[in-house]
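Data availability (excerpt). The following record was deposited with the supplementary files.
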Amino acid sequence: MSRPFSVILLVLVCTAAIGVPTTVHADKPTEYQLKVAYLYNFIKFVEWPTNVLSEDDTLLQICVLGENPFGPALDEMVSGKEISGRQISIVYAKTLAKLDSSHVVFVARSETDNLDKILEQLEGVSILTISDIDGFVQRGGIIGFLTEDNKIRFIINVDVAEKAGLQISSQLLRMSRSVDQER
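Predicted structure:
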């Protein structure tokens, strides 16, 4: 997908999500369907170090750590799709064991009590961490979802991303809040 088209797609998804309440309606996407769309588009605007994800790599792995909050939505909407010529693979884990081969880790709310341990293990590792746990980015995660006025928003901890060697596009940063704005 071309870069301009990706930008337009991200803007459309984010714009739609900003105006869509998180309550469930039969004709509107659910909260977690919207979060899947965000997650998929976040990946398009992040660059990993070449020693972690090189041009020759054909697989990009997403790991859901903890109880799967997405239901079938993540597999249906993302699994097998490609981003920059890399096929997306999804794994589900109850422990930290599968994280080392993942490029993206979504930490489910079921892992709230283990969050500090998880983030400590991932500190400085080139893995994009995403969660909807309250205070996720303030505790050391990279991208956190939050809900305001029944709308999904996201916040990015640029410092943690940089320590992990991840480069986040300025286009994505402009649409997010930063940790500094939350202090």
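Summary of structural features: The longest helix spans residues 3-18.
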